[in-house]
Specification:
The complex is a heterodimer of chains A (about 190) and B (about 150). Chain A is built from two helices and nine strands. Chain A is of the alpha+beta class. Chain B has about 150 residues and is of the alpha/beta class. Chain B has four helices and six strands, in the order H-E-H-H-E-E-E-H-E-E. The longest helix of chain B is centred in the N-terminal third of the chain and has 24 residues. The chains are: A alpha+beta (about 190), B alpha/beta (about 150).
């Protein structure tokens, strides 16, 4: 009986831990991307990305990206990006939802100041297309919150984003994406 | 008409086309909204739209449209690259945010929390939680390329 009581208490502690896992959030994460070819370089930045990290087990990460908040230097690029490639009236948001798979049982302990490399496995939704993917990035606990950084690439064809044949030389199929977020405890 | 004259006209038209194309290509993105708004909303009206309408309906109506919003300033974030303000909402699960270009940093920094403001922006759309277990449990309505119209 005593054994069962201990197991019950342990299960309750685990359940409470899951329910009250600390969540860190921001509405001003920055995501930028660059398309680089021999002929042309396009880049855009978005400062209105909402992001969250949950110190649950496994730790979870989520991003929500309003597509139209990417700002290009040139108006024509902005219009083409929104209307022709991303079809933002139809698919106004991109998102990512995943779990930290490496290191195993990763936890931010609230003391660690060093940048820690992590791998997140999850699903991207871009242009209405879901794709499972793994992203390498880092998390760092600071007195101001958790700093999350990631650099990775996506293939336009994976998300049914068609580039007209006459622009193939100017727009790279491989888009480099950079994420930077300061997540505050909520 | 001589062949020479036709050739000159064609070359002139070609050059004009190239010049127009170059001008259009080089035209910078408007970072601050201007002109007449397509829609006017108070934050209370936006909150109601956000809760009663499906996201598809909301987005088809408002994405990329110029919207003038009137509401109470709840908080603001001043960053190097841009500045965001967050309107006060009755429902804590609805976030209405508006981003300004860095050229308006001083004006945004001078805004008083709790004051009634009016901004003209381009709508990015609404995003609602996809699942009940989403970490991003709030509905977000975001605007960018904003200009400050008034502050009371």
């Amino acid at each position: 009986m005593k054994k069962y009581s201990i197991l019950f208490v342990m299960a309750m502690i685990f359940a409470i831990g899951q329910t009250f896992a600390q969540v860190y959030k921001t509405s001003t994460a920055v995501v930028s991307f660059i398309s680089k070819t021999e002929y042309e370089t396009f880049e855009a930045t978005n400062n209105q990305v909402t992001a969250a990290y949950s110190a649950s087990s496994p730790a979870k990460v989520q991003f929500r990206v309003p597509v139209n908040a990417f700002i290009f230097e040139k108006k024509l690029m902005q219009t083409h990006f929104q209307e022709n490639y991303m079809e933002s009236a139809k698919y106004p948001n991109a998102s990512f939802k995943g779990e930290i798979i490496a290191p195993e049982n990763f936890r931010i302990n609230g003391k660690e100041q060093k940048e820690q490399a992590v791998t997140v496995k999850g699903v991207f939704n871009i242009h209405g297309v879901d794709k499972e993917t793994e992203i390498k990035g880092s998390l760092q606990y600071t007195p101001n919150g958790i700093v999350l950084k990631a650099n990775f690439s996506i293939l336009l064809s994976d998300y049914n984003i068609a580039v007209p044949s006459n622009l193939m030389a100017k727009i790279s199929q491989n888009i480099d994406i950079k994420v930077n977020a300061l997540l505050e405890a909520k | 008409m001589s062949f020479k004259r036709i050739a000159i006209i064609l070359i002139a038209l070609l050059l004009l086309g190239v010049a127009i194309g170059y001008f259009l290509y080089q035209n910078p993105t408007e970072l601050v909204s201007s002109g007449k708004p397509d829609f006017n909303f108070t934050t209370a009206e936006l909150e109601k739209k956000g809760t009663t309408e499906a996201d598809t309906q909301f987005n088809l109506q408002l994405v990329d449209k110029r919207v003038q919003i009137k509401g109470v300033l709840g908080s603001k974030t001043i960053q190097d690259a841009s500045n965001s303000i967050f309107f006060k909402t009755d429902n804590e699960n609805i976030v209405i945010s508006a981003a300004f270009d860095k050229s308006l940093s001083e004006s945004v920094a001078a805004l008083t929390i709790g004051s009634e403001i009016e901004v003209l922006c381009v709508c990015n759309g609404i995003a609602k939680p996809e699942d009940p277990d989403d970490l991003l449990s709030e509905t977000t309505i975001t605007f960018n390329r904003c200009d400050l119209v008034s502050q009371k």
